[in-house]
Request: fold
Amino acid sequence: MASRPIQSGVVDARQRVGSPPARPTSLSLGGTTVAAVGSARLYVCGITPYDVTHLGHASTFVWADVIASVLDASGVRPRVCRNITDVDDVLMEAARSKGRHFDEYALVQQSLFEQSMRALRVGTPAEEPRARHHIEAVQQLAQALLDLGVAYERDGTVWFRAGDVVERSGLSRERALELSADYGDAPDDPAKDDPFDVPVWRASSDDDPAWISPWGWGRPGWHAECAAMAWSVHGPSVDVLVGGEDLAFPHHAYQSAMVEAVSGFTPFARAVLHVGEVRIDGAKMAKSTGNLVLVDDILQGCSPAALRLLLLARPYGEAWDYEPSRLAEAEGALQRLYAAAGRAGSSTDPDSAVALLREDLDVAGACARAEADGGEVARRLITALRLG
Ligand code: ZN
Reply:
């Protein structure tokens, strides 16, 4: 049948489309499929600006950057929010030990962190909320939890009742107690009803930063800060919650539980991405143990693209040991990708490697496919991983 002539003044979409329409997009993460329509909300637990950027930090933020980039390459606009925890006891102690005001100290450390992120080509998030700018939101959260009867106030501190947080985490009670103690939730504090209750709002002593609240002078609890910042930016749920695996419990478990308790929307995060820790000789890289490998030091002798590829060279949840020899391996893999991109391709599907990234961020599989297929397949992967 002959096609109908196009009427003057009527837009014919067929003439205006230069490429096939985007495929329906979904991202598979840890067994969860997240269908995305138009845009996707990412909440990335950012830094506490008291420390130089080491490989452990970099790994988390490069993986977060890859999710954003894969969504972008798939026609979905990533809306990335990466917070700055600039009200935190660890930061206060670090600033005190250097004889600096915590505000000034945090700004300097944050600026150094941003330099490292730029060097690693991590995209600048659209939103970078700071805890100190969300004090009122934390207070609103605390009041809402009190109104619902899932929090109680005692001596100026508002405690969130743990409820079934531990059960939902899948951890044993013993392991959960260890982690709560490790991350400053003081399960043995006699001031609270249950070892697993955590502060939404904390009374401040004379040495701590403090803001006035309905419960006296105080400051936000760590988990409540992220709950309030995420809600302020993205509303009461997010598509992907990202952080190092050490944030899964207690931090993300309580952040999610607080928001869910108030909003009624479950789950708070449709998918989570917890990045495996980076180790040196089997020990976690951490300031407290002093076994740090700094991003800036590595970049003295290696390209940012090779370092990115090294950080992405395994499933995101896997813990791994850093060894300098791995940098040379990553550089070799990068050169193979570039060579593949430079030759004529053999695939009819230029999206084939990027499609593998949508399957639980299978970077290794995508690189193998790009090397095999070459041409546009490899070029699109290089762009999607920001290795160009
Ligand atoms: Zn957080």
User: Anything to note?
Assistant: The chain has two domains: 37-298, 324-384. Residues 45, 226, 251, 255 surround zinc ion (CB under 6 Å). The chain has a mean pLDDT of 91. Residues 324-384 form one domain.
